[in-house]
Amino acid sequence: MTLVLALHSSSDVLGVGVAPLAAPSSPCPEPGGMDLRCQAFPLGRALSNQLFAAVETVLPAGQWTRIGRLAVALGPGGFTGTRLTVVMARTLAQQLAVPLDGVGSFLLMARRLQLREPTWLVQPLPRRGVVAGCFGPDPAAWSGKAARSG
Question: Phi/psi of residue 81, each to 5°?
Fold first, then answer.
């Protein structure tokens, strides 16, 4: 079975998820109906030393050849943590010759919140101002019109 591996480290907590990769023409399965494995690792600054071990907890390295697609959160968030997982995902994608999808963290939050009206998600950035994005129920109209100040 081919898998999708997802990584998120835009905060102090690393998120790792693995699920079966659906065929391109088939609809996304309901969360309760698929073999989804995910885990959160509150690593903070230890991410640089523990990233591979954390991923191997969810998907052992011997099974990485089963990966058929990767997804990685692009932020906004902590620069170093996000950069580490993006580099790991990109390296794996290149070595395994599989597609890599970058997804904005705000878009992930908006989809999870199932917003019914346009809503601004805002995050203050230390020393760099504020980053924000407006999201809502119509993905075509509100797929992440972003604004940045500072």
Answer: -60, -45
Residue with tokens 């601004």: 120
Q: Does residue 23 come out as left (phi exceeding 0), alpha (psi in the -120 to 50 range) or beta? A: beta
Contact in structure between 148 and 129 (CB atoms under 8 Å): yes
pLDDT of residue 41: 95
**Quick one: how far is CA 101 from the chain centroid?**
9
Pairing of strands 67-73, 3-8: parallel
The token duo for 72 is 């990685």
Give pTM, 2 decimals. 0.74
Report the CATH superfamily, name and number, of domain 1-103: ATPase, nucleotide binding domain (3.30.420.40)
**DSSP state letter for 2:** -
Coil/strand/helix, residue 22:
coil
